[in-house]
Amino acid sequence: MVGDPAYCNDICILMEELQLQHVAEQWRLFIDSSKFSLTAILLHNGNKHPSLTLARAVHMKESYVNIQGLLKHKMCYEHHQ
Predict the structure, then answer these.
(1) Burial letters for 5-34: b for 16+ Cβ neighbours within 10 Å, e otherwise?
(2) Which of 24, 25, 26, 65 is deepest in the core (most CB within 10 A)?
């Protein structure tokens, strides 16, 4: 289906696979959108680690409903913070 996001819903496992320590306070979530896509990226506060793309949805515009669905229902943001 067009607009369905590709996403990671277990950040702890992603960090483990990349051999990074997951300390939530050291990372921040950045949401980037354009006319044609919506992307959620995890950025390290000290820029010591590369940015990690957590979700990408082509043909999905930035709106409250889309962001809520992506963060809350797909990526389990409340659990990982």
Answers:
(1) bebbeebeebbeeeebeeeeeebeeeeebe
(2) 26
